[in-house]
Design brief:
globular, MetI-like fold, 11 helices, mainly alpha
Length: 272
Amino acid sequence: MTSDRTANDAQSGRVWKKPPFIANPWVRYGLVAITLVYLYWAFSTLPFDWQRISEGLPRAGKIFGGAFPPSFERAGLLWTGFKESFQIAFLATMLGVLLSVPIAVMAARNVAPLPVYLLGRTLIIVSRSFHPVIVAILFVAAVGFGPMAGILTLTLYSIGFVAKLLAEEIEEIDWGQVEAMRSVGAGYMKILVYGVFPQIMPRQIGLSMYQLDSNLRASAVVGIVGAGGIGGTLMNAFGRYDYDFAFAILLMIIAIILVSEGLSGWVRKKVW
């Protein structure tokens, strides 16, 4: 039928055109004009030091030139940094997921009274409000340099993501099972354990794997500000101008993330 319609359109001289994203031309061209004005304003007011940028390009070339070939001579130091990053990410994921379950229950409107719901949503919003690097700086100032700051940072980071999605999953459960348990006199905790949690368990396993993958990446970033892990090793390598060793660290981080991404994707397909 599609070919017949195309043939008829060709015979009648009509040509199909893709409809515009925004039908109203005034709105469409107005948004384009606003975007162009904003770009001009941003580039004209931001304090770019073009002379310094031009002087830095040759230095960037030297850095990249010194990074090849990558040096794996200090494999022991590389392995120590990775092992610490994995420990930080794994512990933070476990703590974050465990704490996310009660917070998600608090933040689900269909199972929590209004005051508890507002408290749960507030906890989620606060934990999602700051980038992990900012949180890591605060925890480094509070508990000092090292893995403890990284674990606390990524635990809070995990709560913000996992608790939010689990709360949304709880709000979309099959309410028939809950009503059936209520009809036989089941209490609140039994309804949660036997009526709510089994329905969100596949989602929780998938989110846990995804968060572990995300925490592995984030552990390298927060380590740069002193929160432990391979990020600190990377920062020290740059500080010593060991660009070939720094490039080896970057290659290892990429390899770890690729393996982690593939593994977590496989697990999510099996349980989701």
